[in-house]
Recover the amino acids of this structure.
């Protein structure tokens, strides 16, 4: 299947400025998750807001990871990953895992190993362990589809990301 660009009149579509695109996408509020996996025996993870449920039967979800991401590389190698849905009060964790530093992000983070061995972050509203189900290239990211195999949930309110900032959910 191929797609043709949408034309306005007889004009070619214009290239959108990346900063303007980021601002427009940032207008959409989303929850915040940390995707975690293993690089050998070392835990790796990154903060994402591009996350969504895909299917109930079978239980599928998607997450988008940059091609340069060490977490993406680990997921592709292990074929498994964890999803940690962050709660209010976990914005410091979100910022830590969003940074470009190669330092050990898990050093002072409470984690437990799930049934698949994935590092799962304590205090998250939900921890979900997934097997990699499909990978779809999309620009400078991959869309990783995971099949949920194990999960645990807790009561609380989610951490929200919008307009380039983390926010606690309003009642």
């Amino acid at each position: 299947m191929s797609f043709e660009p949408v034309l306005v009149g007889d004009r070619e579509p214009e290239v959108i400025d990346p900063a303007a695109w980021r601002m427009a996408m940032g207008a959409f509020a989303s929850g915040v998750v940390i995707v975690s996996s293993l690089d050998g025996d070392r835990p790796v993870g990154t903060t994402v807001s591009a996350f969504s449920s895909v299917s109930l039967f079978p239980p599928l979800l998607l997450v988008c990871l940059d091609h340069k991401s060490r977490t993406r590389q680990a997921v592709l190698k292990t074929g498994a990953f964890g999803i940690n849905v962050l709660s209010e009060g976990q914005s410091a964790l979100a910022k830590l895992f969003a940074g470009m530093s190669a330092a050990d992000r898990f050093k002072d983070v409470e984690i437990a190993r799930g049934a698949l061995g994935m590092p799962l972050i304590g205090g998250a509203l939900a921890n979900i362990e997934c097997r990699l189900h499909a990978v779809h290239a999309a620009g400078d990211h991959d869309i990783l589809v995971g099949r949920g195999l194990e999960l645990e949930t807790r009561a609380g309110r989610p951490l929200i990301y919008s307009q380039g900032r983390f926010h606690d959910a309003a009642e």
About this structure: The longest strand covers residues 126-138. The mean pLDDT is 89.
